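Internal QA ticket QA-208
Title: Verify multi-chain structure generation after dependency bump
Assignee: T.L.

Test input:
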Amino acid sequence: MAIMTEAPERHSIGLSMKRKEDPRFIQGRGRYLDDIVIPHTLHLALVHSPYPHARIVKIDKTAALAMPGVKAVITGEDLVAANLGWIPTFHGYDKQMVLAVGKAVFQYQEVAGVIATSRELALDAAELVDVEYEPLDVVVDPFESRKDTTIIRDDRENKTNHIYHWEVGKRAETDAALAASEVHINEKMEFQRCHPAPLEPCGILADMDRGTGRLTMYLTSQAPHAHRTVVSLVTGIPEDKIRIVSPDIGGGFGNKVPVYPGYVVATAASVILGVPVKWVETRTENLTTSGFARDYHMNVEIGATKDGVLTALKVTTVADHGAFDAAADPTKYPAGMFGIVTGSYNFPLAFTELDAYFTNKAPGGVAYRCSFRVTEASYAIERGMDMLAQRLAMDPAELRLKNFVQKEQFPYASPLGFIYDSGDYKLTFEKALAKIGYADLRKEQAEKRARGEYMGIGISTFTEVVGAGPSKLFDIMGIKMFDSAEIRIHPTGSGIVRTGARHQGQGHETTWAQIVAEELGLDAQNILVEEGDTDTAPYGLGTYASRSTPVAGGAISLAARKIREKAKKIAAHLLEASEDDVEWNNYKFELSGVPGKSVTMQEVAFAAYTNPPPNTEPGLEAVFYYDPPNMTFPHGAYIAVVDVDAETGETKVRRFLAIDDCGTVINPMIVEGQIHGGLTEGFAIAFMQEIRFDEAGNHLQTNFTEYLVPTSLETPHWETDNTVTPSPHHPIGAKGVGESPNVGSPAAFVNAVVDALSPLGVKHIEMPMTRSKVWHAISDARK
Amino acid sequence: MNLQWSGQELVAAPKAVVWTFINDPDKISKCLPDLLEATIVDAHAFDAVVGVNVGPVRGKFKFKIALDPQPDLEHMKMKISGGGLGSVVDLLASAEIKDNGDGTTTLDWSGTASMRGPVATVGGRVIDKQAERVIGTTFANVKAHVALARAV
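Actual output:
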């Protein structure tokens, strides 16, 4: 018997297959929401409050209704009468107005909807809706909000702006350890409010067909099944009468997870009028009303010995949730996965607490390419580690190497309650240090400092937690966060896979095909991937928080293995042998002990429909609902090299190296593309993006001239590489990668700029590090 | 967003002429720059539709303007409130009218504005100068129109 000395070459997983979806995207042939046209469609335009906080005295619809072509004007009171005035938020602890009822609580809040025969007419008529407001005091700062001087949500039983308190860890022991530590840092930092700003804004085409009694909603949805269930629960329409179709999506990044007022008003209008109603957001509506990200104000305390051994971590956060607690977090995790804040480090003790407040700002708290607050947590610990290194006058690389959780410690129980599945932080970091030439860079930096030049090296060695998640812990509105796959193999050996996920550019049409091809020895080119139609896809919780590969990817793999089990019976029949003598080797069924006697999956597939074994159900398909046993914990080591002009505050990212470990890599090219995208967003957050408000509550970033999206001109060159520590519990060892670069990179950028300016005494610069902010930090340090 | 401006105009006419002019809604309305339409409501009030072109905010704004002459006959206040395209603007303009004793009158004017909505986004970058221009041009037009009326 031949002895195999090497693992067989992979059939499909691990190959950089070109993305099957790209030909249609790059030729402009994608079918996005606004490309869908149904005859006789009416259009919705929304009226927005110019006031951040104002009582609504009167809404006069007369002039708008008098305009030819206007079919209806809908207000919050109209929706209240239809029992649709308020809808629950994701975790069910709060509710939010669809259209303002009684008062507007943030600027640009939706106040009325106008339905007309064209989008242009609807927008013109929206101008004619005469709303009389009585302005109220405005609170846009969570630290002011917590004084409860002005109560934003007087509809709630408790007359306070405080939403919730959350904590995890050992408070008393952590406080004692910090007090006893030889070195103790205690620093404030903000993760500013920003916005995912997908290129395609949100929208809906609601089509109530009175003939069939079915409501079809074409929706920019990252989670079509969850949305179908929410629509059914809120409206009382039976779930079988609702079909949600999520067409091609032009970027989501968490922004297309929530339910927005435009969806509800368009749907209500379609149900009432019995015709299709379309609503597509404007850029301003997207930036001002749809789900924002971050807005965490953190205080980080780290204790250590004087030679840099960590003793304790405490992080205290004030979270600004805007006017409704609509943060898209799982029910039991109001602050998401913020407990990952101990990062890659072996803290013996830790405690974190968070208080969330209402303000007169848009609601949200969506991910922005981040698994439920992991970015805020990673930023806190990775900035904290550099602040500690600066205090200890120790190289930040040395401090990290000294304190990593070691690979022998996995599975590692963190002091804040996670069981890290796997990782090799030292390996990944040492690869990064070697590849970027860390020692030489430090030498160059010393020479430049001697010449009065400012160059910085910023490190971030983060750990993510993704793949929500085990159903015993994770649900959204009670729906468990499993995911699903259905695979059908056709007689000629091609097939179709459907999942409960919904890609928005992640490459599922290719990677899912590769998983099936790998498991079944088929050609990935002939495996069609279909997602987004609730009539055909199995139930799943959708795509966000880097959960698709860890959860839906696991379901695909296990559904394929179910098919392989059945195929083995058919193979035995074809080989005229006992099933026990048939082995799956080299991507085909071989008869053990008889070299050359084998059948391929294609042959088995044909037989499944033409020559099934006696007493065996024909066909070759399977469904699998995968409830992951744990989260997955991707990690990475990022190093940024930045030059700073101390006279102008101008920063230039000269190099950026990202070594990621997302476990098994299904398609290296797609992973690299994901990392490029995430790093570009992380760069934008670090240097450009912030949603700001003036003291009167005016939203100051209502368009792309104010809220900046980096182009290829600004974006640095990215260097990437990886290490592989497979997840021990995932069927193919994959961990998820989409969000790692956004999670890990902001701290690397800030650490680099602060490192550059540390000879001047600069200790911290808040993001976004605009030229003016860097210049002021330098000026203040020089005073 | 709150903004403030001030300026001065020397009008070649006696104080009484200036006072009468700026108390006349019909006359003062014609001094508003980019005026598209004015409707006189009463002796102290008029409605105006003006064209606005501030960055991305382009279209018509509707304003209610209330003239508020002070009993000392030396101060005039003008309250301008309204907006459009989802924005709200409240302007308060006031002028001190000083007789120079030589047949001329000095208008010391000042203005404050609070703005909400898209127009506020444009912020200090553009709106400050635009609004200053609106108020400044209004008083400059008062000077020009009074001079023109005298010349005729």
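Spot checks passed. The helical segments of chain B are 15-22, 25-29, 118-121, 123-151.
Status: verified.
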